[in-house]
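Please check this protein record:
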Amino acid sequence: MGFQAVGANVSRSNHLVSLDLADYGQKRTTVRLDNLVLAAGPWTPALFQMLFPASSIDLEPVTDASDWIVFENPKPMSAKTIGAVYLDDIVGEKLEFAGRNDHTIWATGKRSHAGVVPTVGRTPEVDQASLDELHADAEVFLKHGQGEDRELHVLSQGRSYRPTTQTGMPIIAGVPADRLSVNSSIWPLETTKKSVYVNFGHGSHGILLGMGSGKLMSQIIRGEKTDINVSKMGFS
């Protein structure tokens, strides 16, 4: 059974105490915890604001959306072969094709900053004009040498989001206690103690950087020296 975070409980010293969860039947439960890492991709800013509405932090996300199509490969490769082709320099904008070992070709085209990130659980709305343009490009590049009478078979299509920040630098940091809520002006703070962490804003490199940023996050939480300097990956 899945649960959704619906609220956070913070102590007088701005230290996270527990998280309120609700299942799909809206039955609620409270889980006590020591630390919370927010790494929900494009939904991270909305989740942070919902859980900590009194925080002085604004993640200021920049959404880079892109539509994609998965085609049946007209000339399948072996099960051990994958390959990618980037045609940005040829067509003057983002265009790439990736042949995968499941006999499909994944294609994506130009970026769009106009898309709206849907609420969790809802399917993103595609830009049909963008998909039509991507399909036309596929007709040119994927059918080359395959015969003009052979149609490309679309298996699936959709839209993905690559969230980043205003500076383009990802955030991999703990939230300072004095910025978690407005209580900081009333109660004394444990200024060096953090309990909420954010791992967000990797743009189009999220999957590539996932394992490394996860390791850095664990090092930060454990108070260890990080493998690289993360001083510029904090909050403005």
User: Anything to note?
Assistant: The radius of gyration is 22 Å. Residues 184-190 have pLDDT under 50 and may be disordered. The chain has four helices and eleven strands.
